[in-house]
Amino acid sequence: MIHPTRKCASTLLLLCTALFLCSCSLLEIRDQTETVEKTITFKGSVDVAIDTDARVYAALLYVDAGTARWVGEFGIGRSGRFQFYALPGDYAIAAFADENGDKIYQFEEPATYAADADGKPRIFTVGGGEKIKLDPIVLEGPLDNVSQYNVVPELSKATQNIGVQATLDDAIFSDDYAAMGMWRPLDFLGEVGGGLFMLQPFSPDKTPVIFVHGINGDPRNFREVVAGLDTERFQPWVFYYPSGVRLNMASDFLVKAVNQLEVQHGFDHFFVVAHSMGGLMARSFVKGYYESDHTADLAFFMTINSPIGGLGSARQGVEHSPIVVPAWRDLATGSDFIQEMEQWQWPDETPYHLVFSYQDGDASDGLVALESQLPRYLQQQAIRLYGYNAGHASILREPQFVSDLNEILIGGLDALGR
Description:
- The protein is of the alpha/beta class.
- The chain is built from 14 helices and 17 strands.
- The chain has helices spanning 4-19, 26-37, 157-160, 175-183, 185-191, 223-227, 247-265, 277-291, 312-320, 326-331, 336-343, 370-373, 376-381, 399-415; strands spanning 40-48, 55-64, 67-75, 81-86, 89-98, 111-113, 124-126, 131-133, 137-139, 150-153, 195-198, 207-212, 234-240, 269-275, 297-304, 352-358, 384-389.
- It has a seven-stranded mixed sheet, with helices on both faces. Strands 2, 3, 5, 6, 7 and 10 form a six-stranded mixed sheet that branches.
- Helix 8 links the parallel strand 14 and strand 15.
C-alpha cells in the first residue's frame, strides 16, 4: 500500500512536471505567481453623515496619467466597512450614495474621497504586499468640485459576473481555463474573471445553493450533482475563482458577491456545498460572512473530501518547488491559515454537514488522508458525518452520493420549515 502522504507528494510532482508541458513559459508562470503574492489590501470605512436610503458604495480607482480607472467597488453595509485587493500601482479611494440606483456616480450625488493634507484626493503609491488601513472617510453631500481626473469605469470581469446567468457548457468553464486559474491567475482574471454565476433565472421561491470547486477545478465538477438537484425547490449557483490565489482573497470576494446579491434580490437564506480545497476556502467565507453586513441566513453548509487539516504535499511544494502557487501556502499542513480556521469557533446557527471518502485498503480518498478530512475538532462541529468508498474527485459522480446529497439538502429545507 502506498502511504497517503507519498501519494499527495507524487500528485504534486506530477503537477510540477505538467508546468513544462504548458504552452506558456516557466518564467511567465513564476512572474504571475510572484505578482499575486504582492497583492495589496486596503481596509477602511465610510461614515454616512447624511439622511439617505440610497445604497452607498466605496470605490477603488487606479490612477495613471490623469485618468482614474474605476476598478473596484464595495457595497457599504451597516458597519460602513470596505476592503479592496489590488496589485502594485497608484490608487485613490472614494465613496458615493447611488441615489438613482444605477450604480454609476453622477455629479449631483453625495460623494467623498480619502483626502490628503490639502484636501485633495490622496494617492496611495504601493509597491506590493502592503496592508493599508485608512482613516474613516465621511460622506456629507455632493462634492463642491469635480476631481481633476478623468474617471473611466473599468470594473473587473469577476465583479461584472456577479449574478450573471450561465450554463455548465459555457467555454469559460473549460479544463484549460481551470488550469490557467491555478498556474496563471492574472491571465485568468483578465480573460475569464470568474465570479458567482446562476445556472437558472433567479426565483424568490427557490433556495440558492452555492457550489464551490477546489484547486485546479471548475463548476463543471458539479455537473452530476446539479443534474440531480430538485430544481423545483433549489436554484444552483456556482462560484468560479482562480484556484491558485490565496484563499482569503477568494473567500472575501465570495462574501462581497453574496452580500451584493442579497441586496439585489432580497433572499433570506441560502446553502453552500464545497468540494476539496474549496471546503477549506469556504470555511473562511463563513467566517467573513458572519463578520460582514449580511442580511440572509447561511442555513446549510457542507464540505466534501476537504483537506481541512492541510496537505503535506503543499508544504513540500512551498519548501522545495521552483514555483510556489500562492494557494499552497494556505493549503500546507500547519499553515497560518489552517491554524486560524482551527481556532475559530464555528457558528451554531449554521448546520455543518461533513462528507468524507476513502478507498479500499487506503486511509485516504486517493489524495487527501482521512486525518486531514476528519480532524477531531471538525467532527465535533459537524451535526452529521457521511462516509463513502469513493475517490477524491469521483465522489461527485457517484450515483449514491448524488442521490443522497439531494435528500440531505431537502432535509435542510425541512428543518427550516420550508
